[in-house]
Amino acid sequence: MTVANQVKEALGTLISAQASLEQFTQKAQNEKTKQIYSNAAAEIKDIIVHLDNRLTTIEQEEPQYRNLEH
């Protein structure tokens, strides 16, 4: 598995985790719990942005990765 593929797999996993946390936020009854889930989802979103930027860099630096699905 190439580095680009590993990054894409990690992005998919993080996106799924973020979606789960957002669902937990909506379903939580306790305000403190909602805040914890919301903060975690926001942190994961930041990581997703940074990882997506890294993927773009990889694709620019390594032309063989450009045609892979993104």
TrEMBL record:
Cross-referenced Pfam families: DUF1657 (PF07870)
InterPro entries: DUF1657
Native source species: Virgibacillus oceani
Domain of life according to the entry: Bacteria
Name this protein carries in UniProt: DUF1657 domain-containing protein
